[in-house]
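Design review, sub-item: ligand-bound model
Attendees: FS, YL, KQ
YL presented the inputs for the inosine-5'-diphosphate complex:
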Amino acid sequence: MEQTFIALKPDAVQRGYIGQIIERFERKGFKLAGMKLMHVSRELAERHYQEHSQKPFFGGLVSFITSGPIVAMVWEGDNVVESARKMMGATNPKDALPGTIRGDFSVDLGRNIIHGSDSVESAKREISIFFSPDEILTGWTREADKWVYEALVKQTAAVS
Ligand code: IDP
Ligand code: MG
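KQ shared the predicted structure:
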């Protein structure tokens, strides 16, 4: 099953939105495969955001992400990378629609609450730098999944 890396940034933790944001992913039907509250080191922040290393906001971004605890998570589900990005909304909260996480919880580009991988390849890279393999639980059965995915229900012959 596809996985994505989601991080609740220090502003989400400080403002007390951990539960409300996690609730949205649970409610959608995605399955949690890994989660930890952690401080991000400068080295990890620079690695995670390496694609932005030449941007003018890089220094501020690294300072912010290392400024307090984050909640790092792996979520699993069909098309979860793209769906999570849609649930998050646009990078700039000014453009994020109401109903999206950024649209509902943030106003400032530099304090936009949440990170989510932008592709399956990015997800693999980000999961591998934030989690060791034994911190990810892929084998557990969530009983509700048969109510989330049609394909998990064995088709039975119609009763005549
Ligand atoms: P994303 O988080 O939606 O994937 P990216 O373009 O990858 O957006 O940027 C990473 C993060 O860097 C953003 O979430 C935002 O916090 C911050 N950021 C992006 N562009 C700017 C900017 O122009 N000024 C300040 N911060 C920015
Ligand atoms: Mg990005």
